[in-house]
């Protein structure tokens, strides 16, 4: 499987490369574009400030340019937190997308979004400070209406970016469970 993995607002940190390494070890080809052009951050607030400075349209342009050389192969789009929102936008716009793997984050759907049974899997903390229960319920229903085949996996007590061993949010047990389920999802595509 060819996977396009997008980083969180912390930037392209070692944990993102570790995630890509885990996917490669399972036999997948993984591209990891750096949407922040080398900048990494120690706090969500710093990363969000850069995200806002660059702007949504420019970040999506960078993501599309990174994915374009690989999209004819039928990509699985994946993302961590903010990267999940980027991955979701690209997957819903790419009729050749093979799947969407979201870790820690989603995005609102564009009006009229439609996909043909796109397999989608979301892994999210419960509760999550950035993905409230009401938001997730509405997101799930909108994704289903758009035609996606959606699975949501909740991790009670885990922090937002619970798969990142470099952060306080890290939860080893939840991370291992999420990766096990995610790798099974990818194998099913």
For the largest beta-sheet, the strand count, sense and barrel status come to:
6 strands, parallel
Question: Count the helices. How many?
Answer: 6
Series of H and E elements? EHEHHEHEEHEH
Fraction of helical residues: 40-55%
Structural class: alpha/beta
Report the C-alpha radius of gyration, rounded: 15 Å
Arrangement of strands in the largest sheet: 2-1-3-4-5-6
Number of strands: 6
- The CATH homologous superfamily is called Alpha/Beta hydrolase fold, catalytic domain
Q: Choose one word for the global shape.
A: globular
Question: Which CATH architecture?
Answer: 3-Layer(aba) Sandwich
What integer is the average pLDDT?
Answer: 96
Question: Would you state the CATH class?
Answer: Alpha Beta
Instruction: Name the poorly predicted regions.
Output: none
Alpha carbon gap, first and last residue: 8 Å
CATH topology (fold) name:
Rossmann fold
Q: Indicate the proportion of strand residues.
A: 15-25%
How many domains in all?
1
Produce a short descriptive summary:
This protein has 189 residues and is of the alpha/beta class. 41% of the residues lie in helices and 18% in strands.
Itemize the secondary structure elements and their pairings:
Layout lengths: L1 E5 L7 H12 L3 E3 L12 H11 L1 H12 L8 E5 L1 H12 L5 E5 L15 E8 L6 H14 L2 E8 L15 H17 L1
Parallel strand pairs: 1-2, 1-3, 3-4, 4-5, 5-6
Helix pairs in contact: 3-4
Give a quick set of tags describing it.
alpha/beta; 18% strand; globular; 41% helix; 6-stranded parallel β-sheet; 189 residues; Rossmann fold; 6 helices; 6 strands
């Amino acid at each position: 499987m060819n996977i396009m993995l997008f980083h969180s607002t912390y930037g392209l940190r070692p944990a993102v490369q570790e995630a890509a390494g885990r996917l490669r070890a399972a036999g997948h080809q993984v591209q990891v574009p750096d949407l922040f052009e080398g900048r990494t951050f120690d706090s969500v607030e710093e990363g969000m400030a850069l995200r806002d400075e660059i702007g949504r349209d420019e970040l999506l342009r960078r993501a599309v340019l990174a994915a374009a050389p690989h999209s004819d192969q039928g990509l699985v789009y994946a993302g961590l937190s903010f990267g999940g929102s980027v991955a979701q936008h690209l997957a819903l716009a790419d009729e050749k997308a093979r799947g969407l793997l979201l870790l820690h984050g989603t995005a609102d759907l564009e009006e009229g979004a439609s996909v043909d049974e796109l397999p989608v899997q979301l892994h999210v903390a419960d509760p999550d400070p950035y993905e409230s229960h009401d938001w997730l319920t509405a997101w799930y229903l909108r994704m289903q209406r758009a035609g996606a085949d959606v699975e949501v996996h909740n991790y009670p007590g885990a922090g937002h970016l619970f798969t990142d061993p470099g952060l306080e949010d890290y939860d080893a047990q939840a991370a291992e469970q999420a990766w096990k389920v995610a790798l099974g999802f990818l194998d099913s595509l």
